[in-house]
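## retry 2 of 3
previous attempt timed out at serialization; input unchanged, resubmitting
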Amino acid sequence: MFAIGDTLFLEPAVSDHGTRYKCKVMELSDEQIYIDYPFNEKTGKMEFFMNGTAFKATIYHDDQNVYMFHTELCGRKIDRIPLLAIHYPVENSLVKLQRRQFIRIETMLDLAVHPLEEPSSFAPFTSVTSDISAGGLRIVLQEGHPLQEGMQVLCGVVLPMQTGAIHYLKAECRVLRILHDGEREKASVHFENLGEAAQQNLVRYCFEQQLAEKKKLLNE
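## retry succeeded, writing output
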């Protein structure tokens, strides 16, 4: 599952800032993963963490899967360089998402839609999503909406993370289909020219929703 040299991303479970730390897997044992000291992605600075600090960990694996799991700092080790030890996750605690499949999550998120054409072909409007993935989303439409299949639009979406951080995503989109779903129409749109950082935020949001649903099912 894990290999020496893999990159891990850690987010403190109790942080409300959405700060993410990057590190590498240096050694492995049956119960622990040894990592180098994590550094803040934004500042590039290393940070000290106490034993027992809980993390949400994400790993982008070579098999094109992305894995997320919960772990905690459980020790330290001095080798050629100082290392930290985190708990190796049990298999059934891993949440896996194939990046190429872009698993779709049913969720209602605030959304704003703006035209990309000049002159503007319609007035901006607000709505909500019915579902989202790292590849696109579906917009719940009001009667008399201006969207048409093939139209290019700019979508702004609010992504509330479990850490309390809020990410504001702006993405150029193409309307693929107008769907007639019950009483409301929905627009299925595809993200175009989405940056790596924005895509990672979407993947992380989908991970969190998957994990929350998995925990809910286990507790029923």
